[in-house]
Specification:
It is a single chain. The chain is built from twelve helices and twelve strands. The protein is an alpha/beta fold. The chain has two domains: 85 residues, 3-Layer(aba) Sandwich (Rossmann fold); 134 residues, Rossmann fold (3-Layer(aba) Sandwich), CATH 3.40.50.1980. A four-stranded parallel sheet has the order 2-1-5-6, sandwiched between helices. Helix 5 packs antiparallel against helix 6. The radius of gyration is 24 Å and the shape is globular.
């Protein structure tokens, strides 16, 4: 009888121990005070259900609306060490910024609390970063759910457009700055989502940076079929401004009016970017298909 009681007790203990990891994954670290030094990271934290534990954010952290009420602790890439320390953080999360700023954070904040430095240059890095944040905050279950959902969105687009030849892909130029002209280069997350959407990022031909500066004449030579405008919000008639640039009236996208201003979701490496992936593909492909149909419909 005692032997059976001992066995039952041991089984109960094992079950309790095995259940603890799942409990921890479902409950954020209680009382953890988090500082976010990037608008994208702020959005990720809210998506993980950690909004109430954020005690400081960087400038331009304005989504969701609740983020606007959180105290600012410096600009993106320019953290205010004094304000961060005054917030009594238990965890500081930043994107990869200048090595000097990272060293400053680690030297002055590191002795007080962990500093989590994340790379968000590619879609893979964004997915991995969500899981890193989730691990550091005991929200692993939610982190895995998000990562799985985002990976499935990527896989759907890969199945739809992954086998397109280079000739079949839509030529796309992304403008993230107009003075000087700046685009997205090979290895950037914007280049990656264009490829997923069945496009060919013309900026991949530029070298030297993920966000290279280019000449106006280069875009004319590229002759993109679609122009995507990112970066700062444009004022006035941005289509007219682009059409009036020297020789740009000869660009295919300008002639057909396929100039699209991207919303904030595409400017931040966070949850909304993944929710908009298929929408971007539809925009690129539908505008191209409409143009092809209209050309076919014209009488010779």
């Amino acid at each position: 009888m005692r032997l059976w009681l001992t066995i039952i007790l041991m089984i109960a203990v094992v079950l309790v121990v095995l259940s603890w990891p799942n409990r921890l994954q479902e409950n954020p670290v209680e009382g953890l005070r988090i500082i976010s030094l990037s608008p994208a990271i702020t959005e990720i934290l809210f998506e993980l259900g950690l909004g109430e534990q954020i005690v400081g954010v960087s400038e331009y952290s304005d989504y969701p609306l609740e983020a606007e009420q959180i105290p600012r602790v410096g600009g993106y890439g320019e953290p205010n060490i004094e304000l961060i320390l005054r917030s009594r953080p238990g965890l500081v999360i930043t994107q990869q910024i200048s090595p000097e700023k990272i060293r400053q954070l680690q030297n002055k904040i590191g002795p007080v609390c962990p500093v989590l430095v994340l790379k968000l240059d590619t879609l893979t890095e964004i997915v991995e970063s969500v899981q890193e944040i989730a691990k550091a905050t005991n929200t692993s279950k939610r982190g895995h759910e998000l990562a799985d959902r985002w990976n499935k969105k990527i896989e759907r687009l890969q199945k739809r457009y992954g086998n397109l030849s280079e000739k079949e892909r839509v030529r796309v130029y992304v403008e993230i700055g107009s003075n000087p002209l700046r685009t997205c280069g090979q290895g950037s997350y914007l280049s990656e989502i264009i490829s997923l959407a069945g496009g060919k990022n013309m900026g991949d031909a530029a070298t030297g940076s993920l966000w290279p500066v280019i000449a106006s004449e280069t875009v004319v030579v590229w002759n993109p079929e679609v122009i995507l405008l990112s970066g700062m919000k444009r004022s006035g008639d941005f289509k007219q401004e682009i059409s009036s640039r020297l020789s740009w009236e000869d660009i295919e996208a300008v002639k057909t009016g396929r100039i699209i201003e991207l919303g904030d979701a595409y400017k931040r490496q966070g949850p909304r970017l993944f929710e908009e992936l298929e929408k971007l593909a539809d925009m690129i492909q539908s505008k191209t298909n409409e143009s092809k149909k209209s050309k076919k419909g014209k009488s010779p």
